[in-house]
Amino acid sequence: MQFDDDADLDTSEVQDARGSRIPGGKATVGGGIAGLIALLLGLFFGVGPDQLGLSSDNDQPAATSSSLAQVQQSCRTGQDANTREDCRIVAVVNSVQDFWAEEFRRRGGTYTRSPTVFFNQRVATACGTATSAVGPFYCPAGRKVYLDLGFFDDLRTKFGSTGGPFAQAYVVAHEYGHHVQDLMGTLGRAQSGVTGANSNSVRLELQADCYAGVWAHHATTTKDESTGRPLITDLTAADIRDGLNAAGDVGDDRIQERFQGRVTPETWTHGSAAQRQQWFYQGYRTGDMAQCNTFR
Question: Does the global pTM surpass 0.90?
Answer without folding.
Answer: no
